[in-house]
Write a structure and sequence with these properties.
The complex is a heterodimer of chains A (652) and B (200). With 652 residues, chain A is mainly beta. In chain A, 10% of the residues lie in helices and 43% in strands. In chain A, strands 6, 7, 8, 9, 10, 11, 12, 13, 17 and 18 form a 10-stranded mixed β-sheet that branches. Chain B is an alpha+beta fold. Chain B has one domain. In chain B, strands 3-2-1-5-4 form a 5-stranded antiparallel β-sheet. In chain B, helix 1 runs antiparallel to helix 5, helix 3 runs antiparallel to helix 4 and helix 4 runs antiparallel to helix 5. Classes of the chains: A mainly beta (652), B alpha+beta (200). Chains A and B meet through loops of A and helix 2 of B.
Amino acid sequence: MKKTILSITAIATLAIGLIGCGGAKKDGSGAMSGGNAEKVYVAPGEHDEFYGFISGGFSGQLAVYGLPSGRLFKVIPVFSQDPEKAYGYNEETKPMLNTSYGFVPWDDAHHPDISQTNGELDGRWCFINGNNTPRIARIDLKTFETTEIIEIPNSAGNHSSSFVTENTEYVVAGTRFSVPVPQRDMPIDEYKGNFKGALSFISVDQEDGGMDLSFQILMPGFDYDLAHPGRGASHGWFFFTTYNSEEAHTLMEVNASQNDKDFIAAINWKKAEEYIKEGKFKTMPANYAHNVYDEHTHTATSTMKKEVRALDPAECPGLVYFLPTPKSPHGCDVDPSGEYIVGNGKLSANLTIHSFTKMLEAIKNEKFAGEAYGIPVLNFEDVLAGTVVQPGLGPLHTEFDDKGNAYTTFFISSEVVKWKLGTWEVLDRKPTYYSVGHLMIPAGNSRKPSGKYLVAMNKITKDRYLPTGPELCQSAQLYDISGDKMELLLDFPTIGEPHYAAGCSADLIKEQQTKIYKLEENKHAWVAKNEKEAKVTRNGKEVHIQMTMIRSHFAPDNIEGIKVGDKVYFHVTNLEQDFDVPHGFAMIGANTSELLIMPGQTESFVWEPKQPGVWPMYCTDFCSALHQEMQGYVRVSPAGSNIELSWSLDGE
Amino acid sequence: MKASKIIMIIAALLPASLFFVPMWTIELSAPQYPEPLGMEIWITKIADMKTGDLQNINLMNHYVGMKEIPTHIPEFDVFPWVVGGMVILGVLLGFIGNRVLFLAWFWLAAIFGSIGMYDFYQWEYDYGHSLDAKAAIKFMDSAGELITYQPPLIGTQTILNFEATSLPAIGAYLLFLGMVLSIVAYWVGRYEAGHKFPPL
């Protein structure tokens, strides 16, 4: 009897406990309960701990976010015109978007990568590739401006790009679509054996970041999908995944998915340097644009380059080896030690990890399974380090933390899976919402990853946000990875398609920021460094207005003597030398964007007045208490008029 | 050499620092200027605290009709001679070693210093009161008088959205230290002559 009472008491206690728990769960569910909101809360006026540079994908731009807050700070225009900042619209930056195909005002931005020194992020530059019209851009992380774009010849679909070696010796580009090299008119069905895949190594000047296409390796006609550099012991090597080793050219979704294994191509770029030194390259005619923005002239120039040095791997023993990797591997990721090369076989049930040490051993013993187009193919078993067995469906990309763990995204099963390097056991899995592509751990592709946060980038959001018609936002999701289990902290929408991202500690970048451009260092061809230098000159039908702007007026602000049919250049210099005081400039009816001019900078646009009258101009960026008064007039007379050119400010 | 002489020579040399460092600073902070704007007053020039500050102070000031901060004032032609003269005179007196003359040097420095401060006040007054009649912004106080913008001689004062702080800079402190040392030199001289230290 006593026992029964005790039991009843116990059950009752348990029940109360359960009800209590249930109640608490109901009230406290969601982010607040676990303190997750607090973990991403950055108080007003406080700064985020990390910068996240999230690619805009098909927007062609690069967005700068703070992490963990997910706040958007800036959209850096890279491959697409941006009327807000006049990028690709003003006379100064139009040359940035020049290519061998002419002016291409858009691209598909893919993989940002931050420069490194000794395998660690150094915060000097961020590189990003344009996929469609093959290009690589360099963004200066002192100004957060795109300062250089180099076009990649012999390429099509610059996808396995723009990853840097561990001292930023090179940034690479690899062609996703193999093409005839050089391009020529030929039947498509003669693809096999005739098309080539170029892997490009672009050297980076350590002083100014200047890019130069050093050499290309002309590989067999596969599709070169993704890449990552060796680091530590494997420094000097670069690894590229391939698919379509079938060399199909039609109905690729079927015909390029037939082989059980495709390859990871291991490129010994130090060996390539030796071959270049020995002169074993072929100089090929080429035509590609190299566009550089000068911080002192505030102007970009575009130069067409005419040749490229090419290496043929069949003639360069030891340059390239193929590592068989199951089923169309997508991501090609190297762990922080440089020992493991992860091939994310997107159609495979398992995740394949190769060993760099085993690879070197097999090469030393010349144990080859065969060759493809003169390139040795290693035995799968000889280079295999391990397999993560059935971790999920559709593995795409892997990044690493600082505790020997790897994190892989699975597109088909919409999840991130955490697994252990060396034991290959799955430790945790968390859903993503939905269809995750890349993931990013700040410094996750370096010798020293941060182990705090993981950002998953999703292609589809469906019901996750307020709907906005047929086109919905894509999103990023922030996970806390500091503990044993991952924890979803935050969803935030992104611009365009968040294709891939690079992240680093904010301390690396925030202290080196350029606040103003020094006016005395302005070497723009049409600068006016003070109001006395402001003037208007006519050269036939071309009129150049050298104008200044400072709180809160233009000089001059009254201009007469312009005629219909003139081509009027406004060259506007912002005389401010104060942090965060840009001025904008707009002219009624100008067939272009506004100008947004930073302190100490000069920018220009063309205005072609079409009818006589008096036409206003004004400052577009709310600059001061008298911003609304920052305006002026231009008098336009009929074509044959004899009104003299004159200009003034306050009658002077 | 006697200690009093050495002290006096050091005292006389200290004001020479005014050729190398500013003597006064005025800083202006506001909500939109969390990092304050500032000017340094030297014996030969008025300078930016950081690049662009003077231009930015002028830009703020022109809305209420204040004059631009002058790049050159007549005082800059006089100050270097006065300071240089005092240094040479003080060093000479140090070598001569007459302690009463040390005191005289102190009083001369004090008189020049006072004239300098009075001149500074006059300049500030003019700067804050001579306003352009065409100024874009004219604020009235509760009595219906036009607000003026004179910065404080020393200390902190709120002027519209700005908090203005006017303080001596390193040069002024070194000058002051020189003056104190000249009195010390006088006392030490008395002691060397057999007098007891006067009660403090």
